Amino acid sequence: PAIRTVPTQPVEGQKPGTSGLRKKTRVFMQPGYLENFTQALFDAIGGVQGRTLVVGGDGRFFNDRAIQIILRMAAANGVARAIVGQGGILSTPAASHLIRLRGTDGGIILSASHNPGGEDEDFGMKFNGPNGGPAPESVTDAIFARTTELAEYRTLDTPDLDLSARGETALGGMTVEIVDPVADYAALMERLFDFAAIRDLFASGFSMRFDAMHAVTGPYAREILENRLGAPAGTVLNGTPSPDFGGGHPDPNPVWARPLVDLMMGEGAPDFAAASDGDGDRNMILGRGVYVTPSDSLAVLAANATCAPAYTGGLAGIARSMPTSRAADRVADRLGIGMYETPTGWKFFGNLLDAGRVTICGEESAGTGSDHVREKDGLWAVLLWLNILAARRLSVAEVMARHWAEFGRNYYSRHDYEAVAADRANALMDRLRSMTEFLPGQSFAGLTVEAADDFAYADPVDGSTSARQGIRVMFDDGSRVVFRLSGTGTEGATLRVYLERFAADRHDLPADQALAPVIAAAEALALIRDHTGRAAPDVTT
Ligand code: VG1
Ligand code: CO
């Protein structure tokens, strides 16, 4: 087929955020919108002639059509081979693994992750490089720059490909290889963890529920938990992916995964439960009667990683995003290994992992992962928890109690104010920014500020810098509050307030009670109610 060069004009606002470009699905569906971004991406990475790319997504509304558009454009731009998940499906960690396993030049992942899907909801696209990780800011900046000057894109006039059957087919001069989205990923998990021990755990009557939230992890969880590890059928809930995620938010937190939390807090709860998000990179961990905060989960996984075969040699270091609690820092300190604090977003972990400086990374937003891929990985976290429980034969509640007894507890919570008018949210942040240098020594609702700044990061591997990553306020009793605006929303602005308070002892308080002084100080400091017009956060995790 002849290559068709289509004249186009720059589209405004195609600036990738924390994790790729995210917009309302209808915006992505506008003629030329996806095409422009795709061509800008191809151009910005120096062209794709002769290259191999992985392509897949979380199956949300428009996933199937977007892949057809991208494949035609990839062929027209000279891509030699596209490796596509069967049915257009690949979880984010599975895509990252495939990029690495096959030594490709990168991949395109279609997802808006934990954001809801559907024609009136959200869609997204991001590029991962040859290391399997999200493109660093230098690359996303170059893509954005290219979107502002784009004059044409290249495509083919060909009918849609059938992506439902595995095997190879040709599209123009490009080979399209359709692969099982689950097999390679499941094999990787089997290498990392002690499947025999976890199988024994299930055989002993240990019970679990995994809520796939009608999103991409359903087929992965069924294969791994039920087929390979012998968990009874029915362990995986909501395991059939749907384009609108059953009408819900595929966000594994106590608000959007409420039924699972209720199950675990009620009579007859199973031993363990977990959930993952739209694209399979997040995880929520629950035990009978306990919710494990993602920050605590990172610390526990790091402290116990040597239970799993992949990590018996110990960890090189740990990295966490700045707003994540400092629970993991205590573990790093104890282990005598490096601890790195990065801006929000998995792309900042890539260099540290590539350089071998860290083995485990995590974010407070339910993201945990390791050097096995270059994305956070929901099922990986679940399997590491299972491996730890299989090795230690303790309940989740016991694991937590012993962890806190050993390291102390960092009480932690995040308050989100969603879809706030952008000017109001910006006014709040601007005011805080202008105040930071004068904050030390001042008291707010009884807490005295010890230090405050607008977090700036200098990557220790490549020296690149990222400024204005969030306002940190440290109080003299060891508490901390962080303020930042979300970079993944598609409506107005979302203000995130991250609250943390360390307790050397007294580990059994409800988090909101333990954090009450920090919550009061955050309000006194930032005047959140005045700025947002909200009496309370929309989502508390
Ligand atoms: C949020 C989280 C961040 C995470 C990002 C992508 O970003 O806070 O920790 O890396 O989502 O996660 P923001 O800018 O909205 O705070 V996912 O599961 O959407 O790939
Ligand atoms: Co996600």
TrEMBL record:
Listed InterPro entries: A-D-PHexomutase_a/b/a-I (IPR005844), A-D-PHexomutase_a/b/a-I/II/III (IPR016055), A-D-PHexomutase_a/b/a-II (IPR005845), A-D-PHexomutase_a/b/a-III (IPR005846), A-D-PHexomutase_C_sf (IPR036900), A-D-PHexomutase_CS (IPR016066), Alpha-D-phosphohexomutase_SF (IPR005841), PGM (IPR045244)
Matching Gene3D superfamilies: Alpha-D-Glucose-1,6-Bisphosphate, subunit A, domain 3, Alpha-D-phosphohexomutase, C-terminal domain
Domain of life the protein comes from: Bacteria
GO cellular component: cytosol
Keyword Metal-binding annotated: yes
Alpha-D-phosphohexomutase alpha/beta/alpha domain residues: 14-153, 187-286, 295-407
Region (Disordered): 1-21
Molecular-function annotations in GO: magnesium ion binding; phosphoglucomutase activity
Keywords on record: Isomerase, Magnesium, Metal-binding, Phosphoprotein
Enzyme Commission no: 5.4.2.2
Required cofactor names: Mg(2+)
Enzyme class: isomerase
Pfam families: PGM1_C_vert_fung (PF24947), PGM_PMM_I (PF02878), PGM_PMM_II (PF02879), PGM_PMM_III (PF02880)
Gene Ontology annotations of biological process type: carbohydrate metabolic process
Record flagged with keyword Metal-binding: yes
The family this protein is said to belong to: Belongs to the phosphohexose mutase family.
Protein known as: phosphoglucomutase (alpha-D-glucose-1,6-bisphosphate-dependent)
Organism: Paracoccus sphaerophysae
